[in-house]
Structures are given as C-alpha cells and as structure tokens.
Design brief:
Strand order of the largest sheet: 2-10-9-8-5-3-4
Number of strands: 14
CATH architecture of the largest domain: 3-Layer(aba) Sandwich
Strand content: 15-25%
CATH superfamily of the largest domain: Type I PLP-dependent aspartate aminotransferase-like (Major domain)
Structural class: alpha/beta
Largest sheet: 7 strands, mixed
Order of helices and strands: EHHEHEHEHEEEHEEEHHHHEHEEEHH
CATH class of the largest domain: Alpha Beta
Radius of gyration: 21 Å
CATH topology of the largest domain: Aspartate Aminotransferase, domain 2
Number of domains: 2
Number of helices: 13
Bound molecules: pyridoxal-5'-phosphate
Helix content: 40-55%
Shape: globular
Length: 388
C-alpha cells in the first residue's frame, strides 16, 4: 500500500504481497513439461498441509464458483437428495448449482447474520432422505459469519452417516482454524483470490476416498469440471486443460510466505485483525451484522445507519484511498463489508479505520478523531495477549 495505491479491503480478490505480484510476471513454462510437474506436485503437497488433510487436493483453473460446480458435478447424479444449508448468498449459490444439474435439493436456510444451527440440521436430515450429500459454507462472505463446521459435520455424521459433506471454504480456509480430516469433510473447496494472497484463477478441491467412490457412479453431465480427469492428469504432474500458470507461480511464493510465518501465526493474525475491525466499527457507531458468537475473522459487515447513503459513503472512502465492498442480495445498499483475509496486517486495518473516521467526519457525522483507531488497536493487542 502506498500513496498511489488504495487500501484494498474487499473480501476478494485480496491485495497481493510484492513477492507474489513479481512471481506472476515470470516467463511461461511448458505446462506439459518437467518444471510444471515439479511446481504442481510441490504446491499440492503444501496445500494438503494447509487443508490439514491426507486426501487428494486438485488444482482447477476457475473462479471459486467453478470449484463449487466441480464439487457438485463430479460426485452427484440427477435426482440425488441433497440438503443445502445456507446462511447467505454463497450458500444459496451452492444449492442453486446443485439444483441446476438436477439434484433434488432441500434448502435449510437460516437468517442472514446468523450461523447454521446443528440441531436444526439434525431435524432437517431426520425429516427426509436418504441423503446423498449435504452442502455447507465455512465462511459466508455475504453476511460475515463463520459457521461451526465441526459441529455441523458431526450432526450430519450422526443422522446421515453415508452422506457426502461438501464444504465451500473459499473465503476462510488458509486464514482461520480448519480441519479437513479431523472434521470428516469429504470435499472442501477454496479459491486463490481470498486468504491465499494470490490473484484470482485457481481453485483447490480436496476429495476423500468416499467421495471418489461416489465419483465412479456420478451421472451429472460434466466435461471441464470433471475432477476424475483432474486426478488422472495430476498423477503425471499435469492438469487436463491449460492451467493459469502465472497464478501457480504466485501461489508457490505465497505458500512460502505462509510457511515462513507459520499456520498458527497466520490464524492468530487473522483473529487479531478481526477483533480490531469489529472494535473499530463498533466505536464508530456501526451496528455489526453478524451474531458476535460467529463473527468472521476474514470479513466484517456493518449496517449503514439512517442518513448514511451507500453511494456517498463509498465515494468518500474511495477518494480517501479505501476500497470496501457493499452488500449482496437482500443486503444491497443496507450494509458495507470490509475484507481482512490473506495479506492483511494490523497497521493496514488501523489505516482503514482511520480513513473511516475521516470519511464520517467529512460526511458530517459525530466522530471523535482517533477514538475508533484506539479501540481497534486495543482489541488487536488484547487478541494477541499484549494488552489487558
Ligand atoms: C468468493 C466466494 C466464492 C466464489 O466466488 P467467485 O467469484 O466465483 O470466485 C464462493 N463462496 C464464497 C464463500 C466466497 O467468498
């Protein structure tokens, strides 16, 4: 971030460390040659460490939505009974993809701003079935809520032990604690442009042995997103179609940065930054959208109070060098969201809060200069155990 570069605080694509940006400028290599195979094999091994899994992890060139589509078409058949747990726009999207390909989807929707309730999941599963799969979102980017995936997965295993658990972990994996194997998750999807500090273009999909068994009989139509084809190509260090090579170069460097910092430190940093954003926005008088028990450490959403209009507010922020996101779906024009995943530091967040202070003062709202920055700083230090 410098004078000429805005503080990009949207929940993806996220800003890139300089070393990652530079890696994207490298000369191409033959994607069917030995350099690429070495690169892909190394990246896959390191992604498995970050996913905390021994399952296969495949790399598919696509937006995050393509990763979700690959998870639906590779393992399911038309007519399969699927429970789509949704707490916002991305949960709705996952369910819609399954519906589009002919799955028999029952939606279990929770109020926006709340997390999914494992007891309600148990009830819904008991009321229907036999279930082929359950869809869930780890971190609902539209509402800034993180679901209790471990408890939700346990509820599924209890009531529908054979159902595949498919997880959209696009905007949280890599930033907050997550256990693919220990939580028994069959298919987990993440995307390069969120917590991984890499440009858009790649999705990562982990696949359990049970899911591969389902793939052998899955009848949904598929071609580009056939994960069996990706697995076959990966055996020789390749991808079935031309991959986003430049994004692979970036990912290689980003994984080095993550390894240098250490997974536990990355998680701690996100917890501190999340606490800072929530404290800063609260001190500015904003009402947060998410249930505090399930507030996301990668994105925060807050309501726009009466008299603060999204267009004017956003225009002022942009002029001052801060780029935030608006609301999605039913929350359009009602909330704004700040992304804080991946390449994010406490100073970058204090900058964002400082800009918010200035913008609100410019817009004539009652704000004490420095108060929200101080509240954010204290919350970050408390989270890191450096203040009481
Ligand atoms: C960003 C995101 C996606 C995918 O978005 P694309 O625009 O397709 O890359 C899916 N789910 C969640 C939770 C996301 O945050």
């Amino acid at each position: 971030m410098n004078r000429f570069e805005p503080n990009l605080r949207i929940p993806g694509p996220t800003s890139l460390p300089d070393a990652v940006r530079e890696a994207g400028a490298r000369q191409m290599v033959n994607h069917r040659g030995p350099e690429f195979a070495v690169l892909q094999n190394s990246i896959v091994a390191r992604l498995k460490t970050n996913f905390r899994t021994e399952n296969d992890v495949l790399i598919v060139t696509a937006a995050g939505t393509g990763g979700l589509e690959s998870a639906i078409v590779s393992f399911l058949s038309p007519g399969d009974k699927v429970l789509g747990i949704t707490i916002g726009a991305f949960g709705d999207r996952f369910a819609k993809i399954a519906t589009t390909y002919g799955a028999d989807v029952t939606k279990l929707a929770f109020d926006w701003g709340t997390a999914a309730d494992p007891d309600k999941v148990r009830e819904a599963l008991k009321a229907g079935g036999p279930w082929k799969a359950v869809l869930m979102t780890q971190n609902e980017t539209s509402t800034a809520v993180t679901n209790p995936i471990q408890a939700l997965a346990a509820a599924v295993r209890e009531v529908a032990p054979d159902a595949l658990i498919l997880v959209d972990a696009i905007s949280g994996l890599g930033a907050v604690p997550f256990e693919t194997d220990a939580w028994g998750l069959d298919v987990v999807v993440s995307g390069s442009q969120k917590a991984w500090m890499v440009a858009p273009g790649l999705v990562f999909v982990s696949v359990s042995p049970r899911a591969w068994e389902a793939a052998a009989v899955a009848k949904m139509p598929k071609f580009y997103f056939d994960l069996v084809a990706h697995r076959t190509s990966a055996e020789s260090g390749q991808t079935p179609w031309t991959p986003a090579v430049a994004v692979m170069f970036q990912l290689d460097v980003a994984l080095n940065l993550i390894e240098q910092e250490g997974q536990a430190e990355v998680w701690k940093r996100h917890a501190a930054v999340g606490a800072a954003v929530r404290a800063g926005l609260t001190a500015l008088g904003f009402k947060l959208l998410a249930d505090p028990k399930f507030a996301s450490d990668t994105v925060t959403g807050a309501y726009l109070p009466d008299g603060l209009e999204w267009k004017a507010f956003n225009g002022t922020l942009r002029k001052l060098g801060l780029v935030v996101a608006g609301g999605q779906g039913a929350l359009k024009g009602k909330i704004f969201r700040i992304g804080h995943m991946g390449h994010v530091t406490i100073p970058a967040i204090l900058n964002a809060i400082a800009v918010l202070e200035v913008a609100l003062i410019e817009l004539g709202r009652p704000v004490t200069p420095g108060a929200a920055v101080a509240a954010a700083q204290v919350a970050a230090l408390k989270s890191l155990g450096l203040a009481k």
